[in-house]
Amino acid sequence: MIRTGLIGFGLGGTAFHAPLIAAVDGLELAAVATSRAEALAAAYPGVPATTPEALIADPAIDLVVISTPNATHFPLAQAALAAGKHVVIDKPLTPAASEADALIALARQQGRLLVPFHNRRWDSDFLTVRRLVESGRLGEILLFEAHWDRFRPDLAQAWKEAPGGGQLLDLGPHMLDQVLVLFGMPEAVRADVVGQRGNSAVDDYFELTLFYGARRVVLASSRMIAAPRPRFSIHGRGGSFVKFGLDPQEAAMRAGGSVGDPRHGAEDPAQFGVLTLPDGSQETIPSERGDYTRFYAGVAAAIRDGAAAPVAAGDALDGLRLIEAARRSAEEGVTITMG
User: Fold this and answer.
1) Which of 52, 159, 206, 261 is the most buried (most CB within 10 A)?
2) Is this model's pTM higher than 0.70 or not?
3) Which CATH number fits domain 120-290+322-337: 3.30.360.10, 3.90.550.10, 3.30.70.100, 3.40.50.720?
């Protein structure tokens, strides 16, 4: 068994990491660094509550999972890698690309895994989009649009609303990772990043345009949109695919649902996307079943069998480079060429 220690038992720890770790063969949730000992005992009897320092120093812990505020990712991961642990970090890997680069170098030096928790590669909608794009049915793709919106007009007293947080660092890593999986690094990026909710200390709206020759990729997110925009709109020479709705896994897990439920990760057919062909005919495309356990099964296989990590740390670094280029583009009003 790969004894796994989780640092953080807030939303990320309770709704994502702890249940996924507990569900995957070969992983054992051995300890959790949290001040919420009662909540931990109620959810996982027998799993001890501890501190980050004690968890990292514990010689019995093989894998450290970090699900804490963004600013703590780098120092916690640095300490865990230095202690000889494998590390999984919730997105963003680090707030700054330079920090991610340093962690990648340290992980290589220590001979340990550093794996970004880019679980959205296993969303039902993205698995469907990836299958459709790779099938070639859309032909040459000229416009790829993705939206991920919320309606949260009131500022929250939470670290994501404080400096170091914001919409671009919250949802941007997932959205960019999906595009990098499909198309690789773009030639250039142009961005609009702004805070629209009055005295917000962070951005709550962004729109990024990524350039790939004649293809354009547009990623947009806002906390001030109540009516849904399509999650994905993909337009190619062979047709268009449009899909509304988010993958159901997060909502189910936040509501206390089990990843072992036979229907977990399966979308409501009402949310299936529609493919429109050049002659105007339409076809409903059933969604793949989403499955975040595939991420942690991949982590276990990488540690136990030497398989490739389910997400390469370099992929997250590329996403952070794009985020930093987007911020510069928005501040200077220019298009940034990616080297």
Assistant:
1) 206
2) yes
3) 3.30.360.10
